Amino acid sequence: MRRIFLFVAAMGLASAATLIATCTARAQQPQDFSKVEIKITKVSGSVYMLQGSGGNIAASLGDDGIFLVDTEYAPLAPKIQAALAGAGITNKPVRFVVDTHFHADHSNGNAAFAAAGATILANENLRKRLEEGSTIGNGPGGSISVKQPPQPKEALPIVTYGDGVNIFLNGEKIEVQHMPAAHTDGDSVVFFSTSKVLHMGDIFVRYGFPFIDVNDGGSVQGMIAACDKALAEFPPDTQVIPGHGALATMDELRAYDQMLKDTTAAVQKALMDGKTLAQMKEEKVLAPWQKYSGTFVNSDAFLEELFNSLVARKGKEKVLGETEAAGKPFTCS
Ligand SMILES: [Zn+2]
């Protein structure tokens, strides 16, 4: 999820009224998808990156057919198909799609690709979120809150996994790994092992402070754990496709991971000093990271994400101990 107006467009104007009041101030004009162009860029080996509107797509193109990571918005599916064909590598269809998470700007095209013959795969939590719909947001009292309606069965993954799945296609092993309690509770990252390309979904974004969907089981602890795991497991010359923004290096992923750790430590310290969320906002505890503050996730919204990741609210606020907070992913259930 990047911008609220993308959701407005995806949901249609009628249901846009369901946006919660705090969000409407951020909402902009619905997007005209007829104006969106899909840019396709070769990354390495068989892997390409597609950028249009919504999350970045990774595609493996080859003799075995096409494998996609994420699908952007349904109205863009014909343009995405045209861009894939235009690469001139294969005229075979999209056989498999993996969703990195359930937000509409990454999964709204599912039904269109399924109708064209693709098999959709995802973590089991993602399927549940898509099927049931959700109020996406950055936790109790948070300033970001957007409804995503339940999706029809045509849009749902027909193959689900827990920890992950491997797919052998176009001469390489494609490793799909579930990352628990990160951007949501249904995230996956995808590593193309011969091409050495990694798609991180919205666990890694380049528009500034990331959005963490605490309402759907996301947590900053899980975001950090996922980045740490990717940095430890995959080669240093891996090219990284973020959920949004330009292609990155592992060093850029490492710098982002460090920012998550440093900001989390600052909020953890303020919590241990007995500060409330309001006091932390007043004292601008994230001031040293101001350059990451954006229009979608500004410093206060990110502070809410960190605070709600670190604090479990069960009846009354309970502050997790340092060890507990550092090692244990927060869940909303
Ligand atoms: Zn998202």
What's a concise summary of this model?
With 333 residues, the protein is α+β, with helices and mostly antiparallel strands. It has a single domain, classed as Metallo-beta-lactamase, Chain A, CATH 3.60.15.
Protein described:
The protein has 333 residues and is α+β, with helices and mostly antiparallel strands. It has a single domain (4-262), classed as Ribonuclease Z/Hydroxyacylglutathione hydrolase-like (Metallo-beta-lactamase, Chain A, 4-Layer Sandwich). It has helices at 4-11, 13-16, 21-24, 77-86, 104-107, 110-115, 124-132, 220-233, 250-272, 277-282, 299-310, 322-327, and strands at residues 39-44, 47-51, 57-62, 65-69, 94-98, 119-123, 134-137, 145-148, 159-161, 164-169, 172-179, 187-192, 197-199, 239-241, 248-249, 311-314, 316-319. The strands form four sheets. Strands 1-2-3-4-5-6-9 form a seven-stranded mixed beta sheet. Strands 10-11-12-13-14-15 form a six-stranded mixed beta sheet. Strands 7-8 form a two-stranded antiparallel sheet. A hairpin with a 4-residue loop joins strand 12 and strand 13 (197-199). The longest helix is centred in the last third of the chain and has 23 residues, at 250-272. The two termini are 22 Å apart. The structure holds zinc ion (ZN). Residues 1, 101, 103, 183, 202 line the site of zinc ion.
